[in-house]
Amino acid sequence: MSAIVSLTIATGVGETLHEGELAINYQNDDAVTDPASSPISIPAAPALAYSYEKYAKLKFDGTFTAITNVKIWKSQGVLPDGVNIKGDAVEEAAYVQPVTTASSIALNDVPENDTDAVSLQPAAGITVTGSYSKYLVSQAVISGGATAQTLATQTYRWRYDET
Amino acid sequence: MRHKHWRAVYNNGTILKQIDGDIENKFGDIDLSQLNKFELVSNNGFIYTVLLNPLRKLIYFVRVTGSFGNGENKIDEVHHIGYEQDGEKHIQKIND
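Above: the input entities. Below: the structure tokens describing the complete assembly.
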């Protein structure tokens, strides 16, 4: 065996953890449900619309001594005109209820290569099974006048070093 | 399940295996001060060996890369094995 990594998404006031998720759904709901049930309305230009912030972190189970160098980036998927995904990292303790207004955390475009990847390495380190990375706080930003559509699947890639 | 596991051989000839029957030892369980050589053993029997001495500092970690969002669950694991001596790192990358 070795470390076992999985995706956890947090929602709500009290940081409800949804373990073993397979995707981050950008939607007009603080939830992990099908985004088709809660679409984001496109505003008139020049206004912007926002998905709820999504707090996502990696969980490390299994057997290991230390996990270091945890990073994440968007590796595949083309965003249509008028749609951006912003994302930055915060420590777990910085969790606050996600908002559907402009995020004060997710300010930069999610990087699209490993060189510029967002570091999810927590300051306290990861040495105990069941520990988490930092949160990636991300948010879809929709420009006024964007074309209505279902956003094509985007792929996030993560990486870490294990001993 | 990985296809390669480490084996630590001490100066007195004793061996600590990562997988020893039902027991899995951690890399942190290795007494690096008494290490004679560090081996990465493949399930097919092939062995990668790093010979150590007081001037050589062991380097070993597994770089794990994966993804989500695309419906795949493929994980790539690359063993980084080697040593550092006189400020120079000598590392070989071996796919699991």
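Note for the figure: The radius of gyration of chain B is 15 Å.
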